[in-house]
Each structure stands twice: as C-alpha cells, then as structure tokens.
What we know:
Layout: H1 8-40, H2 61-68, H3 71-79, H4 93-99, H5 105-114, H6 116-147
Helix pairs in contact: 1-2, 2-3, 2-4, 3-5, 3-6, 4-5
Amino acid sequence: MKRLYTTEEDIIAQKQRLARQIDLVSEWIQAFRNEKKETTDEEGDDLDINIGISISGGMTLLHAATFTGDPNLVRKLLISGADPNANSSLGLPIDIARKFDTSNFHEICDILTNGPEKIEQNVKISVNERENQAEAEKKQQVHITLEQ
C-alpha cells in the first residue's frame, strides 16, 4: 500500500537524490566543455551546453541545486557559469532557499550573492581543508589501530 504522507527523512532522501542527479549533469557539461577545449583549442563558447537552461517553469539547475540545500553543488554550478539572477515561476535561486527553508540557507545565500571569484577561492580553501581533515583522520585511525 502506498503511503499518503511524506516524512522528513523521505524529503531529505529525495533532495539528496536530486543533488546527485544535478551533480552528474554538471559533471557531464564540464566534461563536454573540457573535451571541446582540448580538441579545438577554443574556450567552447560557440558550441556549448547552457548550464542555465530552463528545466520547467523557468527553473534552472541552479534553482534545483538551491532547493537541495547543497552549498557545494550551488558553488559548482556558479563556477560553471550558472546565473544567480535567473528568474523562474518560483523566483530567483535565493528565493527558493527562502521559500523552502533549505538547510545551509545562510551559506547558500552567501554563495549566491558573492560571485564566482570569491566562490572559487572558497572552493580551493574548502578542498585543502578537506584534504587536511582526511589526512588527520587517517593518522587518528592508524593511531587507534596501533593502540589495539
């Protein structure tokens, strides 16, 4: 029998699935751009995939990414050229964050309003922090293993 209600966990799982799908599309677009650049020695602007293409009701991948509440995905799309001012039937991407009270609301608003230059710096810092954290976790695991 099909449930007639949706739990908080169901909503979170749906948002995570949507985020993974958007990420795959974004990766595909970036791969297309890289391949074109390598084969033509051009930036890829004349025959490019539009990262800001409307899905439905003017919604773009950036609107959907904002809905998922995933700040890294929002950053990635902006760096790839998504327009934070793209309007849809639900408003701007920042309006989506407000309307649906997404997790990470403040971080997403900051990303949407600061522009790609600052975003790229934050991504590089974030990657370095993650690498440092991963290294520290490995050392801790080795230490725990040695103690046992």
